[in-house]
Every structure is written in structure tokens, then in C-alpha cells.
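Hello, quick one for you while I still have it in my head. A protein chain has come my way and I'm curious about its shape. Can you walk me through what the C-alpha cells say about the fold? No rush at all, and the record is pasted right below.
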Amino acid sequence: MSAARRFFVEGEQEAGSAVEIHGGDAHKITRVLRLHAGDLIEVVDSRARAFAAAIEEAGQVVRVRLLDAIADSVSEVKPLIVEVAQAVPKGTRMDFVVEKGTELGAAAFLPFYSERSVGRRVGPEKLARWRRIARTASQQSGRCEVPAVHEPLEFDALVERLDEYDAVFFAWELAPPEPLHDRLRALLPQVGRVLIVVGPEGGFAHGEAEAATSRGARVLWLGSRILRTDTAAIVLLAVIGAFTS
């Protein structure tokens, strides 16, 4: 079934259950896709289990009946989980990181503020927007799970969490100029949780790099060209994806 007909619902579901779909997803079903009672869609629950579902009523609220679970719907489970810690950039660049990072398989996003951050502090509305983007990008790309988008952290709080990961890669323009391909081949684990950390438009301060490396982070050089902060995260996800696909 097309990814355009995939929709996420809360909770753990079972075949035969009746489920309601609200808001933007209901609008898409009725106004964009122009589906009606009897048409089929795909519904994914909070356990990343996918079901074929038949529409029973289409309106402002769409009511569907879950049919059989789709075999191997938890195929996204991978031995290596990659999360992205991204310094909050200015404007709408975080939208791009969340959208494209979701398409490239990021398991979670940890926005943070650092010494040279230029992006404004964000409130609940911006965080909700990022979560909607992650949800939409998951539907578009055919994922069976929506990556978490956490509330923004201060850099010190992010450093305190580095011990949770099996490997942490810290993108820094002052890292030794070792080719990214070679460095990742040597350091990337085959299983576990990996965090990639990307700084703000002005880069990381030396003290921040020292704080991260003192907690086990490995610095990465991304090449001689200066990449925008939103580009750097996508480059790292793409390269890591090439190693693990």
C-alpha cells in the first residue's frame, strides 16, 4: 500500500478494533486523498505494528476498522540506532533537519542550545511543529515509527547524557583532518545506540569540544568545505546509513 495512505494512531491496537482518526490526518483522508467508506488505508500503532484498515465513516472524524496485521511491520528494528543532537538553528532550518533526518532513519532528535547558538529559545508551539513534521515525514517515507523530538536542552545537560550511548560523534571543524569515511569505519559500532552532535552556525567553542570528548565523544572532521549546520546533520546520517544499510 502507498506510504501516502499510512497513518499513525496512539496506543496499542489489535485486529478488529475500531479506531478514530482526527485533525490533519482526517482532512488528508477525506479532502486530499478523497477516500470514502470501504476504502483501505494502513494504520500504525504505538508499537510500530501496521494494520490494514477499512474506512467505515469519512468526515471531520474518520472511523476505521483494523483488519489483519501486516506481516513484518516491525522491520525497522535495526541493530544500530542513530539519534541526532542538533544545536537549534535560526529560522526554519530545524524543520529541514527533522524532516530529512526522519527520512534518513534518525531514531530521535535532541535539540540543544550552546555557547554560540543564534537560534532563539523555542516554546511549545515550535516543538509541536517539529513533532508534526516528524510524523508527516514518517508517513511519507514509509516508516513504521515516528522519531521522538525531545524538548531542547542546554549544552551541559546534553553532555550529561552522553554516557547513555555506545558511541558519540561530535562534528567539529577543528577536528584532525582525517577522512570521514575512514574515521567512521574505524569507530562506528555494529550494534547499539549512536548519537551524532552538530553545533550551531558559529560552531562549537573549544571548551564545549573538550567537555564532550572528556565524556567519550569522538570528534569528526567533515571536510574542507564549511557546511551549514542543517547540512552537516544530513551528511552524517547519510554516510552512517551507507555503512549500515
Observations:
- The CA atoms of residues 84 and 109 lie 5 Å apart.
- The two ends are 23 Å apart (CA to CA).
